[in-house]
Amino acid sequence: FHIYDMKLNIAYPATGCQKLIKIDDEKILSIFYDKRIAQEVAADKLGDEWKGYVLKISGGNDLQGFCMMQGVLTNQRVRLLFKKGMPGYRQRRTGERKRKSIRGCIVDSRLSVLDLVVVKKGEQDIPGLTDTTQPRRLGPKRVGKIRKLFNLSKEDDVRQYVVHRPLPEKEGKKPRTKAPKIQRLVTPTRLQRKRAVLAQKQRRAEKNKREAAEYAKLLTQRQKEKRQALLSRRRSSHRSSTSSA
Q1: d(CA 157, CA 162)
Q2: Mean pLDDT of 69-96
Q3: How far apart are the C-alpha atoms of 67 and 163, rounded to whole Å?
Q4: Residues in contact with 181: Cβ distance below 8 Å, sequence separation at least 6, in sequence order
Q5: Cα–Cα distance between 68 and 99 in angstroms, integer?
Q6: Phi, psi of 242 (to 5 degrees)
C-alpha cells in the first residue's frame, strides 16, 4: 500500500511546549510501526539532536480524522458500540448507546498525526521544545494541588497562593486579574455548617427515637384497651346466656 507522510506532534510536559515535525522517510517512521499506545520508543533515528530521547506514544489520528483508542488491539478502523463512561463519547439521553468508528491502538503507516510525549530528555536541547518554557495559563484550583505546587503545610493560608491570571488591559482602566474559586477549602464557616448538619442529624435521630417510643407506648395501650373491651363483651354475653337459661 501507499506510504503517506506522517506528522509527529511531540509534547514536553516539563516546559509546556509542543513541536510538530513532518516525516516522509519510511525508515524513520518504521520505529513506531506495530507499537501500541503507552509504549516507549527511543528517538535516536529522528536525528542527531534527538540522541538519548525517549518518546511515549499517547495517541494519533488517521487520514480521515478518526482518533486512536486505547485497548482496541488492531491497526485498522472498527465500529464499536459506545455507552456512558467510555472515552470519546458523550451520552445525550439516559441509557443511550451509539455505534461509532474509531481506530485501534496499534500504529501503522495510515496515520496522519502521531502524538508523542517526551519521557526522557537527551543530551541536546530541541529548539522550540526543550529550550523555551511556556507558562501555564491557569493555575491549580483544588486546595490539595495548590499545597503540593507551593509545598505548603496545613497551617499556611492557601488563599494567599492562588495563581492570578492577568486580563487584557483596556485603555484608561486599571489592570485586572482573575483567580479561580478554591475548591475543598476548609474555612470556619464550612466547619460551622458541618457542625450544624451533624447537630440537625442528631436532633432528628433523637426525635424519631422519642416518637417511636411514644407510638409503641400508645400501641400497647390501645391493644390493652381492645383486649379489655373484648373480655367485657364476652362476659356480658356469658351472663345473658346464663340468665335466659
Answers
A1: 10
A2: 94
A3: 34
A4: 141
A5: 16
A6: -75, -35
> Within 13 A of 181's CA, how many CA atoms are on the CB side?
0
58 Cβ contact partners less than 8 Å away, ≥ 6 residues apart: 11, 37, 38, 115, 116, 117
What's the DSSP call for residue 131? S
- Give the chain's length: 245
φ/ψ of 203, rounded to 5, equals -60, -40
Q: How far apart are the first and last CA of the chain?
A: 116
Query: How high is the pLDDT of residue 2?
Result: 52
Give the model's confidence band at 1: pLDDT under 50 very low, under 70 low, under 90 confident, else very high. Answer: very low
pLDDT of residue 234: 86
Predicted TM-score (pTM) of the model is 0.66
Select from 138, 67, 137 the least CA-distant residue to 104.
67
DSSP alpha helix (H) spans, the chain = 26-29, 143-150, 188-244
Integer CA distances (angstroms), 92 to 88, 189, 194, in order: 13, 38, 36
Mean pLDDT over residues 87-96, rounded? Answer: 93
Q: What is the mean pLDDT of residues 94-107?
A: 96
Residue 21 CA to residue 113 CA, distance in Å, equals: 10
User: What H or E segment, with its residue span, contains residue 82?
Assistant: strand 77-82
198's grid cell:
451533624
Q: Which amino acid is at 172?
A: G
- Residues 79, 69: Cα–Cα separation, whole Å: 12
**Look-up: residue for cell 492557601?**
158
Is-contact 67 102, C-beta < 8 A? yes
